[in-house]
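Hello,

Our lab assistant flagged a job as stuck in the queue for most of the afternoon. It eventually completed. Since we weren't sure the result was trustworthy after the delay, we are filing this so someone can double-check. Below is the sequence as submitted and the structure that was eventually returned. Let us know if re-running is recommended.
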Amino acid sequence: MSQRSDFDAVVVGSGAGGLCAAARLAQAGLRPLVVERRSRLGGRASTEDIDGHKVNVGAIAIELGGVFEETFALVGAPLVLREPKPASAFYLDGKVVDVSRGGWAFLLGQVTRHAAKVLGAFAEARAGSLPDGRLSTKDWLEGFTRNETAHALFRNLCAAIFACNADELPARAFLTYFTQKGAFKRFGFCPDGTIGVWRALAGAITRLGGEIWLDAPAQRILVRDGRAAGVVVARGGETVTIGADTVVSNIGPKATVALAGRDAFPPGYLEAADALRSAANIVFNFASRQRLFDAPGLITFGKTQRLCNMAELTAMCPELAPAGWHQYVAYAVPVPALGDFDADAEIALARQDFEAQFPALDLDGPDTKMLSVRVMCGDWPAQRACAGYDLPQTTGIAGLWCVGDGVKDYGNGGTQACAETARRAVEEIVSECRRRAG
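-- returned structure --
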Protein backbone atom coordinates (compact mmCIF):
# COMPACT_ATOMS: atom_id res chain seq x y z
CA MET A 1 0.00 0.00 0.00
CA SER A 2 1.28 3.47 -0.89
CA GLN A 3 0.17 6.93 0.18
CA ARG A 4 -0.19 10.23 -1.68
CA SER A 5 -0.88 13.64 -0.19
CA ASP A 6 -0.18 15.90 -3.15
CA PHE A 7 -3.81 16.49 -4.18
CA ASP A 8 -6.18 19.09 -2.76
CA ALA A 9 -9.33 17.16 -3.68
CA VAL A 10 -10.35 13.73 -4.91
CA VAL A 11 -13.24 13.44 -7.34
CA VAL A 12 -14.82 9.98 -7.45
CA GLY A 13 -16.35 9.29 -10.86
CA SER A 14 -15.76 10.89 -14.27
CA GLY A 15 -19.34 11.63 -15.27
CA ALA A 16 -20.60 15.10 -16.18
CA GLY A 17 -20.74 16.38 -12.60
CA GLY A 18 -17.37 14.95 -11.63
CA LEU A 19 -15.45 16.27 -14.60
CA CYS A 20 -17.09 19.70 -14.41
CA ALA A 21 -16.20 19.84 -10.71
CA ALA A 22 -12.60 18.80 -11.34
CA ALA A 23 -12.24 21.36 -14.11
CA ARG A 24 -13.54 24.15 -11.90
CA LEU A 25 -11.34 23.08 -8.99
CA ALA A 26 -8.28 23.10 -11.24
CA GLN A 27 -9.19 26.49 -12.67
CA ALA A 28 -9.49 27.84 -9.11
CA GLY A 29 -5.89 26.84 -8.40
CA LEU A 30 -6.54 23.59 -6.56
CA ARG A 31 -5.07 20.25 -7.63
CA PRO A 32 -7.79 17.63 -8.17
CA LEU A 33 -7.46 13.92 -8.80
CA VAL A 34 -10.30 12.18 -10.66
CA VAL A 35 -10.56 8.43 -10.06
CA GLU A 36 -12.74 6.36 -12.39
CA ARG A 37 -13.36 2.63 -12.10
CA ARG A 38 -14.01 2.16 -15.81
CA SER A 39 -11.52 2.38 -18.65
CA ARG A 40 -13.29 5.31 -20.29
CA LEU A 41 -14.54 8.76 -19.33
CA GLY A 42 -18.13 9.89 -19.10
CA GLY A 43 -19.93 7.40 -16.88
CA ARG A 44 -23.49 6.96 -18.18
CA ALA A 45 -22.82 9.49 -20.94
CA SER A 46 -19.90 7.82 -22.65
CA THR A 47 -19.20 6.13 -26.00
CA GLU A 48 -18.05 2.69 -27.10
CA ASP A 49 -16.99 1.28 -30.48
CA ILE A 50 -19.22 -1.47 -31.91
CA ASP A 51 -18.68 -2.90 -35.39
CA GLY A 52 -17.23 0.35 -36.71
CA HIS A 53 -19.91 2.51 -35.11
CA LYS A 54 -19.40 5.03 -32.32
CA VAL A 55 -22.23 4.11 -29.99
CA ASN A 56 -23.21 6.32 -27.07
CA VAL A 57 -23.84 4.51 -23.81
CA GLY A 58 -26.54 6.81 -22.45
CA ALA A 59 -26.92 10.54 -22.93
CA ILE A 60 -26.49 11.85 -26.45
CA ALA A 61 -27.70 15.46 -26.38
CA ILE A 62 -25.43 18.02 -24.71
CA GLU A 63 -27.29 21.18 -23.76
CA LEU A 64 -25.85 24.45 -25.00
CA GLY A 65 -25.78 27.69 -23.07
CA GLY A 66 -25.88 27.97 -19.30
CA VAL A 67 -23.42 26.55 -16.81
CA PHE A 68 -22.26 23.61 -18.93
CA GLU A 69 -20.99 25.74 -21.80
CA GLU A 70 -19.68 28.30 -19.31
CA THR A 71 -17.55 25.58 -17.66
CA PHE A 72 -15.79 24.76 -20.92
CA ALA A 73 -15.16 28.44 -21.67
CA LEU A 74 -13.88 29.01 -18.14
CA VAL A 75 -11.18 26.34 -18.41
CA GLY A 76 -10.41 26.82 -22.10
CA ALA A 77 -11.74 23.46 -23.27
CA PRO A 78 -13.15 23.22 -26.81
CA LEU A 79 -16.82 22.25 -26.91
CA VAL A 80 -17.36 20.74 -30.36
CA LEU A 81 -21.06 20.17 -30.88
CA ARG A 82 -23.32 20.25 -33.92
CA GLU A 83 -26.63 21.88 -33.15
CA PRO A 84 -29.68 20.49 -34.96
CA LYS A 85 -32.35 22.90 -36.16
CA PRO A 86 -35.06 22.30 -35.30
CA ALA A 87 -33.70 20.76 -32.11
CA SER A 88 -36.85 18.79 -31.37
CA ALA A 89 -39.92 17.61 -33.22
CA PHE A 90 -42.79 15.19 -32.68
CA TYR A 91 -43.65 12.07 -34.64
CA LEU A 92 -47.42 11.81 -35.00
CA ASP A 93 -49.26 9.42 -37.33
CA GLY A 94 -46.09 8.68 -39.28
CA LYS A 95 -45.20 12.34 -39.85
CA VAL A 96 -42.61 14.68 -38.34
CA VAL A 97 -44.32 17.69 -36.75
CA ASP A 98 -42.03 20.69 -36.27
CA VAL A 99 -43.20 22.82 -33.32
CA SER A 100 -40.11 25.03 -33.12
CA ARG A 101 -42.15 28.12 -33.96
CA GLY A 102 -45.60 27.35 -32.69
CA GLY A 103 -44.45 25.67 -29.47
CA TRP A 104 -46.89 24.21 -26.97
CA ALA A 105 -49.83 26.12 -28.47
CA PHE A 106 -49.28 24.57 -31.89
CA LEU A 107 -48.67 21.06 -30.50
CA LEU A 108 -51.62 20.92 -28.12
CA GLY A 109 -53.89 22.57 -30.65
CA GLN A 110 -53.27 19.58 -32.92
CA VAL A 111 -54.55 17.02 -30.42
CA THR A 112 -57.07 18.46 -27.94
CA ARG A 113 -59.82 21.07 -27.86
CA HIS A 114 -58.83 21.82 -24.28
CA ALA A 115 -55.43 23.20 -25.30
CA ALA A 116 -56.24 26.66 -23.94
CA LYS A 117 -56.75 25.27 -20.44
CA VAL A 118 -53.42 23.47 -20.45
CA LEU A 119 -51.64 26.53 -21.84
CA GLY A 120 -53.21 28.64 -19.11
CA ALA A 121 -51.75 26.31 -16.49
CA PHE A 122 -48.32 26.67 -18.13
CA ALA A 123 -48.66 30.46 -17.93
CA GLU A 124 -49.49 30.22 -14.23
CA ALA A 125 -46.45 28.01 -13.70
CA ARG A 126 -44.20 30.56 -15.40
CA ALA A 127 -45.57 33.15 -12.99
CA GLY A 128 -44.62 30.93 -10.08
CA SER A 129 -47.92 29.21 -9.34
CA LEU A 130 -47.10 25.50 -9.23
CA PRO A 131 -49.16 22.51 -8.10
CA ASP A 132 -48.47 20.58 -4.93
CA GLY A 133 -45.47 18.28 -5.24
CA ARG A 134 -47.62 15.24 -4.50
CA LEU A 135 -49.78 15.61 -7.63
CA SER A 136 -48.54 13.51 -10.56
CA THR A 137 -48.20 14.89 -14.07
CA LYS A 138 -50.86 12.45 -15.26
CA ASP A 139 -53.37 13.55 -12.62
CA TRP A 140 -52.57 17.20 -13.25
CA LEU A 141 -53.23 16.80 -16.98
CA GLU A 142 -56.48 14.93 -16.33
CA GLY A 143 -57.74 18.09 -14.65
CA PHE A 144 -57.81 19.70 -18.09
CA THR A 145 -58.22 16.93 -20.64
CA ARG A 146 -58.63 13.18 -20.97
CA ASN A 147 -57.62 13.17 -24.62
CA GLU A 148 -55.60 9.98 -25.18
CA THR A 149 -53.14 11.55 -27.60
CA ALA A 150 -52.44 14.45 -25.23
CA HIS A 151 -51.79 12.01 -22.40
CA ALA A 152 -49.56 9.89 -24.63
CA LEU A 153 -47.49 12.93 -25.58
CA PHE A 154 -47.06 14.00 -21.96
CA ARG A 155 -46.15 10.47 -20.94
CA ASN A 156 -43.47 10.33 -23.61
CA LEU A 157 -42.12 13.75 -22.65
CA CYS A 158 -41.82 12.60 -19.04
CA ALA A 159 -40.15 9.41 -20.25
CA ALA A 160 -37.76 11.11 -22.66
CA ILE A 161 -36.52 13.73 -20.22
CA PHE A 162 -36.91 12.15 -16.79
CA ALA A 163 -36.92 8.39 -17.56
CA CYS A 164 -40.22 7.84 -15.77
CA ASN A 165 -43.93 7.75 -16.52
CA ALA A 166 -46.40 10.60 -16.17
CA ASP A 167 -48.05 8.94 -13.16
CA GLU A 168 -44.62 8.71 -11.45
CA LEU A 169 -43.39 12.27 -12.01
CA PRO A 170 -44.63 15.18 -9.87
CA ALA A 171 -46.41 17.76 -12.01
CA ARG A 172 -44.50 20.40 -10.07
CA ALA A 173 -41.20 18.97 -11.37
CA PHE A 174 -42.51 18.69 -14.94
CA LEU A 175 -43.74 22.29 -15.00
CA THR A 176 -40.61 23.60 -13.28
CA TYR A 177 -38.48 22.07 -16.00
CA PHE A 178 -40.52 23.37 -18.92
CA THR A 179 -41.21 26.85 -17.56
CA GLN A 180 -38.13 27.69 -15.50
CA LYS A 181 -35.24 25.50 -16.70
CA GLY A 182 -33.50 25.03 -20.03
CA ALA A 183 -35.92 22.38 -21.30
CA PHE A 184 -33.42 21.30 -23.97
CA LYS A 185 -34.27 24.23 -26.23
CA ARG A 186 -30.71 24.15 -27.59
CA PHE A 187 -28.40 21.18 -27.66
CA GLY A 188 -25.84 19.51 -29.85
CA PHE A 189 -24.33 16.15 -30.78
CA CYS A 190 -20.59 15.51 -30.63
CA PRO A 191 -19.12 14.09 -33.87
CA ASP A 192 -16.71 11.94 -31.83
CA GLY A 193 -19.56 10.53 -29.73
CA THR A 194 -20.41 11.99 -26.33
CA ILE A 195 -17.04 10.86 -24.99
CA GLY A 196 -15.42 13.51 -27.21
CA VAL A 197 -16.86 16.20 -24.93
CA TRP A 198 -15.33 14.59 -21.85
CA ARG A 199 -11.96 14.09 -23.50
CA ALA A 200 -11.81 17.81 -24.19
CA LEU A 201 -12.67 18.65 -20.59
CA ALA A 202 -10.18 16.06 -19.30
CA GLY A 203 -7.49 17.72 -21.39
CA ALA A 204 -8.17 21.01 -19.65
CA ILE A 205 -8.07 19.37 -16.22
CA THR A 206 -4.63 17.88 -16.81
CA ARG A 207 -3.35 21.07 -18.44
CA LEU A 208 -4.37 23.00 -15.31
CA GLY A 209 -2.50 20.61 -13.03
CA GLY A 210 -5.05 17.93 -12.19
CA GLU A 211 -4.80 14.21 -12.84
CA ILE A 212 -7.26 11.58 -14.07
CA TRP A 213 -6.85 7.89 -13.26
CA LEU A 214 -8.89 5.41 -15.31
CA ASP A 215 -9.27 1.76 -14.28
CA ALA A 216 -8.88 3.03 -10.73
CA PRO A 217 -11.93 2.14 -8.59
CA ALA A 218 -12.40 3.94 -5.29
CA GLN A 219 -12.52 1.32 -2.56
CA ARG A 220 -13.27 3.53 0.39
CA ILE A 221 -13.92 7.17 1.26
CA LEU A 222 -12.03 7.99 4.44
CA VAL A 223 -13.78 9.95 7.18
CA ARG A 224 -12.12 11.08 10.39
CA ASP A 225 -13.79 13.06 13.18
CA GLY A 226 -16.75 13.89 10.98
CA ARG A 227 -14.67 15.16 8.06
CA ALA A 228 -13.55 13.72 4.73
CA ALA A 229 -9.93 12.60 4.91
CA GLY A 230 -9.28 11.06 1.50
CA VAL A 231 -9.97 8.05 -0.69
CA VAL A 232 -8.48 4.56 -0.94
CA VAL A 233 -8.01 3.63 -4.60
CA ALA A 234 -7.04 0.43 -6.41
CA ARG A 235 -4.71 1.19 -9.28
CA GLY A 236 -2.49 -1.07 -11.33
CA GLY A 237 -2.60 -3.89 -8.82
CA GLU A 238 -1.69 -1.54 -5.98
CA THR A 239 -3.76 0.04 -3.21
CA VAL A 240 -3.16 3.78 -2.95
CA THR A 241 -4.39 5.97 -0.10
CA ILE A 242 -4.96 9.53 -1.27
CA GLY A 243 -5.02 11.97 1.63
CA ALA A 244 -7.28 14.98 1.00
CA ASP A 245 -9.77 16.92 3.13
CA THR A 246 -12.08 17.49 0.16
CA VAL A 247 -13.85 14.64 -1.62
CA VAL A 248 -16.38 15.18 -4.40
CA SER A 249 -18.55 12.18 -5.22
CA ASN A 250 -20.09 11.78 -8.66
CA ILE A 251 -21.40 8.26 -8.05
CA GLY A 252 -24.72 9.10 -6.42
CA PRO A 253 -25.76 9.32 -2.76
CA LYS A 254 -26.30 5.58 -2.24
CA ALA A 255 -22.90 4.57 -3.58
CA THR A 256 -21.31 7.40 -1.62
CA VAL A 257 -22.80 6.04 1.60
CA ALA A 258 -21.52 2.57 0.73
CA LEU A 259 -17.96 3.83 0.22
CA ALA A 260 -17.79 5.99 3.32
CA GLY A 261 -19.71 3.60 5.58
CA ARG A 262 -23.12 4.16 7.09
CA ASP A 263 -21.73 4.97 10.52
CA ALA A 264 -20.16 8.15 9.16
CA PHE A 265 -23.46 9.78 8.17
CA PRO A 266 -26.22 11.41 10.22
CA PRO A 267 -29.42 9.29 10.45
CA GLY A 268 -31.47 11.81 8.45
CA TYR A 269 -29.17 11.58 5.47
CA LEU A 270 -29.18 7.80 5.56
CA GLU A 271 -32.97 7.74 5.64
CA ALA A 272 -33.18 10.06 2.62
CA ALA A 273 -30.56 8.12 0.66
CA ASP A 274 -32.27 4.81 1.39
CA ALA A 275 -35.56 6.23 0.10
CA LEU A 276 -34.17 7.27 -3.29
CA ARG A 277 -35.84 5.51 -6.21
CA SER A 278 -33.84 5.39 -9.41
CA ALA A 279 -35.49 5.78 -12.82
CA ALA A 280 -35.00 3.28 -15.65
CA ASN A 281 -34.98 3.22 -19.41
CA ILE A 282 -34.03 0.90 -22.26
CA VAL A 283 -31.68 2.25 -24.92
CA PHE A 284 -31.70 0.83 -28.46
CA ASN A 285 -28.74 1.67 -30.68
CA PHE A 286 -29.14 0.44 -34.24
CA ALA A 287 -28.16 1.25 -37.81
CA SER A 288 -30.24 1.00 -40.96
CA ARG A 289 -29.57 1.25 -44.66
CA GLN A 290 -32.78 3.25 -45.02
CA ARG A 291 -33.52 6.65 -43.54
CA LEU A 292 -36.58 6.47 -41.31
CA PHE A 293 -37.54 10.15 -41.00
CA ASP A 294 -36.35 13.61 -41.98
CA ALA A 295 -35.42 15.37 -38.74
CA PRO A 296 -31.92 16.31 -37.58
CA GLY A 297 -32.64 16.38 -33.84
CA LEU A 298 -34.73 14.46 -31.34
CA ILE A 299 -38.25 13.30 -32.12
CA THR A 300 -40.80 12.49 -29.42
CA PHE A 301 -43.48 9.95 -30.27
CA GLY A 302 -47.23 10.29 -29.88
CA LYS A 303 -49.16 7.11 -29.12
CA THR A 304 -46.75 4.32 -28.24
CA GLN A 305 -46.60 1.61 -25.60
CA ARG A 306 -43.02 2.15 -24.41
CA LEU A 307 -40.95 3.92 -27.06
CA CYS A 308 -40.67 7.61 -26.13
CA ASN A 309 -38.08 9.35 -28.30
CA MET A 310 -35.45 8.79 -30.94
CA ALA A 311 -32.69 10.48 -32.94
CA GLU A 312 -30.81 9.85 -36.16
CA LEU A 313 -27.30 10.72 -35.02
CA THR A 314 -25.79 10.50 -38.51
CA ALA A 315 -28.06 13.32 -39.71
CA MET A 316 -25.70 15.71 -37.91
CA CYS A 317 -22.66 13.48 -37.38
CA PRO A 318 -22.20 11.06 -40.30
CA GLU A 319 -18.74 10.07 -39.02
CA LEU A 320 -20.33 8.09 -36.20
CA ALA A 321 -21.16 5.28 -38.63
CA PRO A 322 -19.51 3.56 -41.60
CA ALA A 323 -20.52 4.83 -45.01
CA GLY A 324 -23.98 3.79 -46.15
CA TRP A 325 -25.48 3.46 -42.67
CA HIS A 326 -27.93 5.70 -40.83
CA GLN A 327 -27.32 5.36 -37.09
CA TYR A 328 -30.16 5.73 -34.60
CA VAL A 329 -30.68 5.77 -30.87
CA ALA A 330 -34.11 5.23 -29.37
CA TYR A 331 -35.31 5.24 -25.79
CA ALA A 332 -38.08 3.26 -24.18
CA VAL A 333 -39.23 3.65 -20.59
CA PRO A 334 -40.69 0.63 -18.79
CA VAL A 335 -43.82 0.43 -16.66
CA PRO A 336 -43.08 0.96 -13.87
CA ALA A 337 -39.89 2.95 -14.31
CA LEU A 338 -39.36 3.43 -10.58
CA GLY A 339 -39.78 -0.20 -9.55
CA ASP A 340 -39.17 -3.76 -10.67
CA PHE A 341 -40.16 -4.71 -14.22
CA ASP A 342 -39.80 -7.60 -16.65
CA ALA A 343 -37.00 -6.43 -18.94
CA ASP A 344 -37.68 -9.00 -21.68
CA ALA A 345 -41.37 -8.08 -21.79
CA GLU A 346 -40.59 -4.37 -21.90
CA ILE A 347 -38.11 -4.83 -24.74
CA ALA A 348 -40.74 -6.79 -26.66
CA LEU A 349 -43.29 -3.98 -26.23
CA ALA A 350 -40.76 -1.44 -27.46
CA ARG A 351 -40.05 -3.59 -30.52
CA GLN A 352 -43.78 -3.63 -31.23
CA ASP A 353 -43.67 0.17 -31.18
CA PHE A 354 -40.90 0.14 -33.77
CA GLU A 355 -43.07 -2.05 -36.00
CA ALA A 356 -46.08 0.24 -35.57
CA GLN A 357 -44.19 3.51 -36.11
CA PHE A 358 -41.96 2.31 -38.96
CA PRO A 359 -43.71 -0.56 -40.79
CA ALA A 360 -40.95 -0.85 -43.40
CA LEU A 361 -38.24 -1.31 -40.76
CA ASP A 362 -37.13 -4.87 -40.03
CA LEU A 363 -34.97 -4.79 -36.92
CA ASP A 364 -33.77 -8.32 -37.66
CA GLY A 365 -33.35 -7.89 -41.41
CA PRO A 366 -30.14 -7.78 -43.48
CA ASP A 367 -30.35 -3.99 -43.89
CA THR A 368 -30.43 -3.33 -40.15
CA LYS A 369 -27.81 -3.80 -37.42
CA MET A 370 -28.91 -3.85 -33.79
CA LEU A 371 -25.76 -2.51 -32.18
CA SER A 372 -26.83 -2.68 -28.54
CA VAL A 373 -29.88 -2.93 -26.31
CA ARG A 374 -29.04 -1.61 -22.87
CA VAL A 375 -31.42 -1.83 -19.90
CA MET A 376 -30.40 1.00 -17.59
CA CYS A 377 -31.69 0.29 -14.09
CA GLY A 378 -30.59 -0.73 -10.62
CA ASP A 379 -26.97 0.20 -9.91
CA TRP A 380 -26.58 1.61 -13.44
CA PRO A 381 -29.85 3.52 -13.91
CA ALA A 382 -31.00 6.12 -16.38
CA GLN A 383 -31.32 8.54 -13.46
CA ARG A 384 -30.27 7.95 -9.86
CA ALA A 385 -33.28 9.83 -8.52
CA CYS A 386 -36.66 10.57 -10.02
CA ALA A 387 -36.91 14.29 -10.68
CA GLY A 388 -38.41 16.06 -7.72
CA TYR A 389 -36.81 13.72 -5.20
CA ASP A 390 -33.11 14.64 -5.43
CA LEU A 391 -31.06 14.90 -2.25
CA PRO A 392 -29.03 17.95 -1.19
CA GLN A 393 -25.40 18.11 -2.23
CA THR A 394 -24.18 18.29 1.36
CA THR A 395 -23.86 14.92 3.08
CA GLY A 396 -23.59 15.75 6.76
CA ILE A 397 -19.85 15.06 6.52
CA ALA A 398 -17.62 18.13 6.28
CA GLY A 399 -15.65 18.20 3.05
CA LEU A 400 -17.70 15.47 1.36
CA TRP A 401 -19.90 16.71 -1.48
CA CYS A 402 -22.12 14.98 -4.00
CA VAL A 403 -22.44 16.28 -7.55
CA GLY A 404 -24.31 15.16 -10.65
CA ASP A 405 -27.29 12.91 -10.89
CA GLY A 406 -29.22 12.40 -7.66
CA VAL A 407 -28.53 15.87 -6.22
CA LYS A 408 -29.82 18.14 -8.98
CA ASP A 409 -31.97 21.24 -8.60
CA TYR A 410 -35.68 20.51 -8.23
CA GLY A 411 -37.18 19.58 -11.58
CA ASN A 412 -33.95 19.88 -13.53
CA GLY A 413 -32.22 17.29 -15.72
CA GLY A 414 -29.43 16.48 -18.13
CA THR A 415 -25.76 17.42 -18.26
CA GLN A 416 -26.69 21.06 -17.66
CA ALA A 417 -28.10 20.18 -14.25
CA CYS A 418 -24.99 18.14 -13.42
CA ALA A 419 -22.76 21.07 -14.34
CA GLU A 420 -24.79 23.31 -12.04
CA THR A 421 -24.20 20.97 -9.11
CA ALA A 422 -20.46 21.08 -9.86
CA ARG A 423 -20.38 24.86 -9.87
CA ARG A 424 -22.22 25.11 -6.55
CA ALA A 425 -20.00 22.56 -4.84
CA VAL A 426 -16.77 24.13 -6.08
CA GLU A 427 -17.89 27.61 -5.05
CA GLU A 428 -18.42 26.33 -1.50
CA ILE A 429 -15.14 24.37 -1.51
CA VAL A 430 -13.12 27.39 -2.68
CA SER A 431 -14.82 29.65 -0.13
CA GLU A 432 -13.96 27.21 2.66
CA CYS A 433 -10.34 27.00 1.50
CA ARG A 434 -10.09 30.77 1.62
CA ARG A 435 -11.63 30.94 5.10
CA ARG A 436 -9.22 28.33 6.39
CA ALA A 437 -6.25 30.04 4.74
CA GLY A 438 -7.20 33.47 6.08
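-- support follow-up --
The delay was a queue issue, not a problem with the job. The result is valid. The two ends are 35 Å apart (CA to CA). The chain has twelve helices and 20 strands.
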